[in-house]
Amino acid sequence: MSTDRLAALRSATAGLQPPFAVVDLDAFDANAAALTARAAPGTTIRLASKSVRCRVLSDRALARPGFAGVLALTLPEALWLAADHDDVVVGYPSVDTDAVAALATDPALAARVTLMVDSVESLDVVEAAVGRSPAAPVKVCLDLDAALELLGGRVHLGPLRSPVRTPAQAVALARAVLARPWLHLDGLMAYEGQIAGTADAAGPRLRQAAVRAVQRASARELAERRAAVVEAVSALAPLRFVNGGGTGSVEQTSAEPVVTEVAAGSGLYAPALFDSYRRFRARPAAFFVQPVVRRPSPRVATALGGGWIASGPPGPDRQPVITWPRGLRYSPLEGAGEAQTPLLGPRAGELRLGDRVWFRHAKAGELCERVGELHLVSGHELVGAVPTYRGEGKAFL
Predict the structure, then answer these.
(1) Are strands 138-143 and 321-324 parallel, antiparallel or unpaired?
(2) Among the four 46, 184, 194, 206, which has the fewest Cβ within 10 Å?
């Protein structure tokens, strides 16, 4: 990001006491516009709420043309969001029988929320929770595994998600849904994390070339398989939506004729893991700020906390990125720590107690699990603060 923009953010938040989190609304809005511009005509963006975890900012994105619907992480979250949104799909199967029962006994919620299923067993969970006479039909979405498999399935490249991969398997599950009159087949989803969630311009050139080769092969294979699955399932019952992709694959996924919507949310905050994609460049929009509280030596400045590590395989790329001052690095013995983060480098000796260090989280919505509110900056001004899920007393996952 530009030095001028960072200076504006620092000036606008000078009166706040760290630690705190900041969202640059100018960047957030620009990223939202970029997501819709990347999508093929007629393809909408379904907001992945886990990547935002702030209702005010989710609503801000959803108010823009090109965004429609929410992809929630859990059923309890979906039920909460359904008070304000009429199209909420749960991205993962639920075994929360209390939440399933609450959905099925409320016709208004049942009309607004769609469950994810990937097996007859997941249908059985719903049936055990609600019986065969719910107040309203329960809508379900089939989850198609989108990974690339090679060597007869011995090599699996992509997320380990659904057991449903082939048209025949999808048809079998669709028939199982249709055999239960208290269920309604609503849509189909396939998330290609090996494309959408894997940077293709990170690391050594050999790794980049390998990632791009896998992504090209996977995109070709999935486009053919997804089209065949949609055709086969649609012959049994119409599908209201076909969902795919993510922030990293909007152009590619939305170009498939059978795809009606792409799920995205991380691209709004543009966390550090999205810095290394060739196809797009988002503007960093979300930050957190920690104060310097120790000077253990003339060459070291220690920030309070800061160990807000992202989920996924442990590694340096899961640590926050030090955004300002430039020229700082982590201590290899401590990294970003729970209680303290020693900072080394040419600029460390210039920092004094009370000075601020700006970080970016490696992932998007996980930042909001650490703070109760997000401070909003527009232009050069601090324009307010809005609660995160945590700030509203919610912790879904």
Answers:
(1) unpaired
(2) 206
Q: What are the distances in angstroms from CA 69 to CA 20, 64, 82, 131, 313?
A: 30, 12, 10, 28, 30
CATH code of the region 25-265 = 3.20.20.10
DSSP state of 13: T
Q: Which residues fall within 8 angstroms of residue 281, CB to CB, at 6 or more apart?
A: none
Which residue numbers in the chain have pLDDT < 50?
none
Upstream peptide bond of 19 is cis (omega within 30 degrees of 0) = yes
Residue 256 near residue 223 (C-beta atoms within 8 A): yes
The tokens describing 85, both together, are 């949104």
Q: Are 285 and 28 in contact (CB under 8 A)?
A: yes
Residue 233, CB half-sphere, CA atoms under 13 Å: how many? 34
The pTM score is 0.95
Output the pLDDT for position 373: 98
Identity of the residue numbered 256:
E
Tokens of 3: 């030095």
* pLDDT at position 198: 85
Count of C-beta atoms within a 10 Å radius of residue 99: 21
CA angle (270 as vertex; 61, 342 as ends), nearest 5: 135
Fold of 286-389: Lyase, Ornithine Decarboxylase; Chain A, domain 1 (2.40.37)
| DSSP-assigned states of every residue in 89-142 | EESS----HHHHHHHHT-HHHHHHEEEEE-SHHHHHHHHHHHTT--SSPEEEEE
Burial category of 83 from C-beta neighbours within 10 Å (exposed 0-12, middle 13-18, buried 19 and up): exposed
Whole-angstrom distance, CA of residue 250 vs CA of residue 242? 14
CATH 2.40.37.20 location in the chain: 286-389
User: Please, which residues have CB within 8 angstroms of residue 58's CB and are 6 or more apart in sequence?
Assistant: 47, 49, 52, 70
pLDDT of residue 215: 86
Beta bridge partners of 288: 21, 359
Tokens of 123: 């249908």
